[in-house]
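Rotation project, supervised by the postdoc (A.L.). Task for the rotation student: set up a whole-complex structure prediction and record inputs and outputs verbatim in this book. Inputs entered:
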Amino acid sequence: MNKNLCVVGLGYIGLPTAAMFAKSNWNVVGVDVNPVAVEKLNQGEIHIEEVGLGELVKEVVKEGNLEAKLEPTYADCFIIAVPTPHNEDHTAKLDYVIEATKSILPYLKEDDTVIVESTIPPRTINDIVAPIIEEQGWNVGENLFLAHCPERVLPGRILIELVENTRIVGGINQKSAEQAAEIYRSFVKGEILITSAVSAEMSKLMENTYRDVNIALANELAKVSEKLGIDALEVIQLANHHPRVNLHLPGPGVGGHCLAVDPYFIIEKAPEQAVLISNARVINNSMPSFVIDQVKKLLPQKASKLAVLGLTYKGNIDDVRESPAMDIVNLLRTEGYNISVHDPHVQPHQVEFELSSFEDAIGDAECILILTDHHEFKTLDETKVVKLMKYPNVLDTRNCVQFSNEQIKYYNYSNLFEISSQKEVIMK
Ligand code: SAJ
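Outputs recorded:
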């Protein structure tokens, strides 16, 4: 007999997860507070974009294995995949996780498994989720099982990575972890590592923190190199020949809803101990103003036109969440700079200012500032750059463009120090 699953939260993680279980012969009810998402799903349509998801959802809804509701229902397993946004002070806002947990309480029955996939600060399962369930009279770990199973999927590859990635399953006790692991074996082909809930919580946060701290190190190298007249990118390349060194790349800062958010979930729980993690955040958050300092050296007059290329937090995506490029644009606008912005991956409704075509953005500009490594920017039309710009200066914070035309004065993290030594902007 097919088993019943209830997935609470039909976002980028919940919906693909619900669809994968439905494909693996579970009867799945997906729950969301958004009536539009629910209605669309019941018609076999999706409200988010993800490669292959539309087809999969259509198929499982048609077969009757997936339906959407506004309220949870009885099931053998509940998966909570709601967002964990952050408060102004960067602490985790657990309201959605708490609400989702409370919403399933009336539908729990003996031997059910509750799994939280949302990213949460360490100890949340033990200190917050378990007590809510226990208050209802359940003996968590004995007659009701509870686990944290963080995800690591990359947008654009979610359906592949859900199946192939190694999965960490952290139970509130061994029995809970084993129950949850058995559930994921329905479709996960990657390894399933069983651990405690708190280790699972912490390992998810440390994966993203590892990257954030390493990027901070690269950004600090970029600043030191600018001061001392060193080619930072060459240093990275040379150092990475060491078999145990992997320096990351400097950029305009760190964005997205993971790297720029998750380290704070550790900091909030142990602020005195998480010194390096805190400093990494400070360094990465300082990069937008470091980039603006370079712009100011290149364009001392605010009236000079600056063409900004790229708004998303990384290349070839349409996501502007926590994007350092947005911070840079907003700071420049507040300071009264004459800027035009071009990003072929961003729609006008995503931003509060006007977006320009490439030609309009660079027309009469005195500098191009590249903030995202979209593939479109890797091969910029040099003839247009020279012809349309007033002065062909390019400041590439992503080290992504190659120019051969010597009229174009190109700066990246290899030669930032040359900006300081320059008396006037290079003219045609
Ligand atoms: N960045 C740099 N320098 C680098 C590498 C990245 O400045 O050398 C910047 C990027 O430009 C971007 C930011 O860091 O602004 C984050 O990009 P990313 O590609 O490193 O990570 P995310 O946030 O898109 O996805 C991460 C992934 N985690 C890790 O690689 C450890 C992904 O696997 C996770 O699923 C995701 O977080 C998540 O959901 O937690």
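Student's summary: The longest strand covers residues 4-8.
Supervisor addendum: The chain has 16 helices and 13 strands.
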